[in-house]
Amino acid sequence: MVLVPASTCICARQPKSLFELPKHALTRICSLEYIKEVESVFEIIAEPNRRAILSLLVSSEQSVGEIERQLRMSQPTVSKHLRVLRDAGFVESTVDAQRRLYRLKPKPFQEMDAWLAQFRRFWSGYLDALERHLDRMDPLTPTKKEDKKKTRGPLRERKKGETK
């Protein structure tokens, strides 16, 4: 049950359903639930072993045994992480004879991408500036270290030759 302060209710009594709540209270409840969902998605993919499993599944569907061998993890550990990913909707499985094949489900990744889209403007400018800078750099122009190496080499040889 959602507890709402009396000041936000139309009357002092506790509402019997969500339909009795003022419109702004419903908006707050929905946004909080959405934030919790997004947080849980990021908590799930924050775990390094789960990210490694997701990276393997990008290329093709894999069985638990194949994931075990490639990531050098135990079968119970792989199964535990796959269960979390499956419950969160990131992967789905199909049965092929006596083995389960896991593959990615695109929807959660599309939802994350849509959510992150609003923040792309913050870093895309920096990436564009870096790209322009790298494009302007002349690959034939040596760096300062390369200049020093070129000037030191012959000088050292001359000094060695002069002392002999």
Give a short summary of the structure.
The chain is mostly helical. The chain is 65% helix and 9% strand.
Pick out its properties.
164 residues, mainly alpha, Arc Repressor Mutant, subunit A, 7 helices, disordered N terminus
Account of the 3D structure:
- The protein has 164 residues and is mostly helical.
- It has 2 domains: 6-109, Winged helix-like DNA-binding domain superfamily/Winged helix DNA-binding domain (Arc Repressor Mutant, subunit A, Orthogonal Bundle); 123-163, no CATH class.
- 65% of the residues lie in helices and 9% in strands.
- It has 7 helices and 3 strands; from the N terminus they run ααβααββααα.
- It has helices spanning 23-46, 48-59, 64-71, 75-87, 106-117, 120-136, 144-163, and strands spanning 62-63, 91-96, 99-104.
- A 3-stranded antiparallel beta sheet has the order 1-3-2.
- The radius of gyration is 29 Å and the shape is elongated.
- 7% of the residues are buried.
